[in-house]
C-alpha cells in the first residue's frame, strides 16, 4: 500500500474517493463544507434528511456528487467535534480504511488530518493514520490453502494537510510510520506462526535473513551447547526439556557513532510454553505460542530501525527456547547456577521467562550498554493488574521510565509503571539457594521484575510485561505487534536528543 501527502481543495481532487468528516449532531467539517458549497448544498440536504448523524464510525458513501471531480465522497462520523481524541481519531481512520477496502475505491484522498485532535500536530496525525491504516489491512493467511483477497483492494491513500508548510514534516511522518508498520507486520507474522513452525531454530534463521537483507545489521547465534559451556544454567534449565534446542540470538545495528554505548533490547522468546513439569491447564494452551511475543517485537523493532536508518546503536537479543516437559526437563526443586553466578531454586518450571531472561541480561553486560529494555509476556498477573489496554513497566531508573511513559503516550502504545520496592525481594527468598524463581500470588508482575532486577544492576534497565498486550484472544485472535510502536517512538526520541546534543 502506498501513502502520500498533499495540500489541496476537496472539490478538486481527481480521485476514486474523497473522505471528509461529519460531526455529531449532523455538522459538516471544513472540507465537507467546501464540498457542500461547490455541490450546491448536496451534503447539507443529506444531513437534513437524517441519513448520517455523525456518531463515531458511522459512514455514508455517496456517488456522483454534483460538481465534484472525485467519483465518490465518503462521509465519516467523528462524534462530537470537541470530544475528538487520540483513540477516536485512530478508530475513525481504521473505519475509513476498512470501508474503502470493502467498497470499490482503490485509491482515496483523506481530509481527516484537518481535524483538531487535542494539540496533536500534522506529523502525529499523519503518522498515526499511516500506522492505523497498515494495521487495519493486516491479515495472516500464509497457512490458508485458499486466500480471500479483496476484489478491489485499496492501493493508495493520500492525506491532505491544511497548509503547504506541513508537507515536509508529513512526508517524514509517512517515512517513520511505514518503517514502524513494517516492523509491526513482521512482529505479528512471527507471533502468529504456529509453534511447530516457529521454534528457536526458525527464529535464528529469521535473524540471519534479517542480517542478509539489511547491511547495517549483524547477527550472531549462540547455540545451547555454547550456552551450557558459558554457564548459562538458568537458560539451559528451560531449554533442556525440549527436543528443539534453545538459541541466544544477537542482532547488532550500528547506525550511530562507533563506540557510543548501545541501547539493548532483550526479548523473551519462548516459542511454546507448556509450563514444563509444572504443566499448565490445557484450556487455551494454544495461545502459549505467543510466549515469544517479546522476541517478535525485538525482530520487528530491529527491522523498522534499519529501514528508518536511525543514527543510534541498538542491539537486539532474543532468548529463544521451548518450555516442554520431558525426561530431561527441569524438576520443581532443582537448583541451577545462572550466568551471573547467583543460584536459583526453580520452584515452578512455569516461571521460565525470568530464567531465560536473567542469563540474557547477564550476557548483555559485555556490550557495556547505555540502556537495557527487556520485553516479555512474563506474567498472567499483569493481565489481572492492567488488562489488555496497557503494558506493565518496571524500571531501576526514573528518567528511563519517564521516557518510556512519554513514548507510550505519543505512540498510543501505552505503558503504566509498577513499583519495584526492595520489600518485594522477600517473596523470592529460598532456604536452599540465593533465591527462588517464584514469588507467590501477591504482586506476581512485580516479583517477576524483582527477580530480573537482580541481574540488571550494571545498567539502566526497564522491563516491559506485554502479557496482556502482545496478542488478542477470542474471535479476533491474533498478534497485535505491540510494543513495536512504543519502542520505535522511544528510539526516534533518543535519536532526536542525540542530534541536539
Ligand atoms: N508465559 C506465561 C505468562 C502468561 C500467561 C502470559 C498467560 C500471558 C497469558 C509465563 O511463563 C508464566 O507461566 N507465568 C506464570 C508465573 C507463575 C508460575 C509465577 C503465571 O503468570 O502464572
Ligand atoms: Mn510459563
Ligand atoms: Zn512463559
Which sequence of strands runs across the widest sheet? 8-9-11-10-14-18-15-16
Secondary-structure-derived class:
alpha/beta
- Give the distance, in angstroms, between the N- and C-terminal Cα atoms: 36 Å
Task: Outline the biggest β-sheet.
Answer: 8 strands, mixed
How many domain units?
2
Taking Cα atoms only, what radius of gyration do you get, to the nearest Å?
A: 25 Å
Share of helical residues: 25-40%
Within CATH, the superfamily of the largest domain carries the name Zn peptidases
Mean pLDDT: 98
Going by CATH, the architecture of the largest domain would be 3-Layer(aba) Sandwich
Low-confidence stretches: none
- What's the total helix number? 14
Ligands, deduplicated: ligand BES, manganese (II) ion, zinc ion
Beta strand count: 20
Strand content: 15-25%
**What's the CATH class label of the largest domain?**
Alpha Beta
Q: Which fold name corresponds to the CATH topology of the largest domain?
A: Aminopeptidase
Shape: elongated
